[in-house]
Design a protein that fits this description.
The structure holds 2 protein chains of 2 kinds. Chain A is mainly α. Chain A contains 16 helices and 2 strands. In chain B, α2 runs antiparallel to α3 and α3 crosses α4. Classes of the chains: A mainly alpha, B mainly alpha. At the A-B interface, α2, α7, α9, α12 and α13 of A face α1, α2, α3 and α4 of B.
Chain lengths: ~300, ~90
């Protein structure tokens, strides 16, 4: 769903570059280190393993250990989306647990195809930006009908796929002036900052000034602020997984302070018939490839 | 995972996205004013689409007003017109 949406967007490219900065750097320094240490493949000593042959590692240079370290760093850099994507999409009325599982599956599938089919060291996951567009613009415009909105995303995915095969794609991307592209990327950033500050309780509504400072007497707001500073500090030091460590630290601190109940580390994936979701409760769930009849859906939406 | 625990991650990613501002050409007002309109209007209207639309309209209007119509791409003009119609009639 938002996996394809997140990746197709030209505006997300900037984010991917920004977010993946430390990851790529980590990967490249590790590659350099692996090549420089002289522990590279000596073909006379060991027969190349299946993994090595599949990805052509000895030809390219890095050792399998280097690949694993770079992969772990990439995972830690991107893993925050597992928690942020459900937090955004649940505002559209979607089931939190279901979105969590879907986000993980989409990232796993995308990254596996990228690795095994394209043999390209880029991991794919649902991206930030269009998920906010989905939850805060598309779904409200469709009268809160996120099922219908998902159908629109699917069709837009098909259109983007067709567009990618034609020269129209490059033309369309070049046609939008750079200043507007940059403005859109930054604007979504500012929009998400407002959402995040609301979620954190640092910003609250006010009848006269529209927005005002939240209730900072609550420990939740301070935990969020501390978590942000932790993430920023770790990221400045180029520590992979800065974001995910920050989220986990705030969650653990909240449990330790008794603000949140402890659910344990492992949980079952949410069972498919989720209570809030008409998609699952209907029989159509068993034939997921069928289109939902638009007529029935559109009757409840103003659009 | 409570909302205030994922908020720091969201805030940090949002900061990364906001760094795009640095690459805007700050020497040409017909470039940075539409960009700033997008940046301001997205959170203030609480709508990403409205922010984009107002930015495109401002871009076309500004370029046309200062007589630099040649710089306006046909695709941008069409998008701006579509957003203008939507804002007025929808």
């Amino acid at each position: 769903m938002s996996a394809q949406a997140g990746i197709e967007s030209p505006y997300d490219c900037r984010l991917t570059r920004g977010g993946g900065h430390d990851r790529r750097e980590a990967a490249s320094t590790q590659t350099g280190e692996g090549a420089g240490s002289g522990n590279g493949w000596d073909e006379t000593k060991l027969p190349p393993s299946g993994l090595d042959r599949w990805f052509g590692l000895s030809v390219a240079g890095p050792s399998i250990a280097t690949e694993f370290r770079a992969g772990l760093a990439t995972f830690l850099t991107m893993a925050y989306i597992m928690f942020v994507n459900p937090a955004i999409l649940e505002k559209a009325g979607m089931d939190h647990g279901a979105v969590f599982v879907a986000t993980c599956l989409a990232a796993a599938l995308g990254s596996l195809i990228m690795g095994f089919y394209a043999n390209y060291p880029i991991a794919l996951a649902p991206g930030m930006g269009l998920n906010a567009y989905f939850a805060f613009t598309m779904v409200p415009e469709l009268g809160g009908n996120w099922q219908l909105a998902l159908g629109c995303v699917f069709i837009s995915g098909l259109l983007f796929f067709a567009l990618s095969l034609s020269p129209l794609r490059a033309w369309l991307i070049d046609a939008i002036p750079m200043c507007l592209k940059l403005g859109i990327a930054a604007g979504i950033g500012f929009f998400l900052e407002l959402v995040a500050l609301q979620n954190a309780g640092v910003v609250a509504d006010d009848p006269t000034t529209l927005v005002t400072l939240g209730e900072l007497s609550k420990p939740q707001a301070w935990l969020a602020v501390a978590g942000f500073l932790l993430i920023a500090g770790l990221a400045v030091q180029k520590i992979p997984g800065a974001i995910i460590f920050g989220v986990l630290a705030v969650t653990l601190a909240a449990v330790a302070l008794g603000l949140e109940p402890w659910h344990g580390v492992l949980a079952r994936p949410p069972s498919s018939p989720c209570s809030s979701c008409s998609l699952c409760s209907s029989r159509r769930w068993r034939r997921p490839c069928r289109f939902m009849p638009l007529r029935r859906r559109s009757s409840s939406s103003p659009a | 995972m409570p909302l205030y625990a994922t908020a720091p991650a969201l805030l940090f990613v949002a900061c990364l996205m906001a760094t795009s501002l640095g690459a805007i050409g700050w020497d040409d007002a017909t470039d940075y004013i539409p960009a700033l309109i997008i940046v301001l209007m997205m959170p203030l209207n609480y709508s990403i689409a409205t922010g984009i639309g107002l930015g495109f309209i401002a871009y076309v209007a500004l370029k046309a007003f200062v007589g630099r119509i040649k710089e306006i791409n046909a695709a941008v003009a069409v998008i701006a017109a579509a957003f203008l119609l939507k804002l007025i009639f929808a």
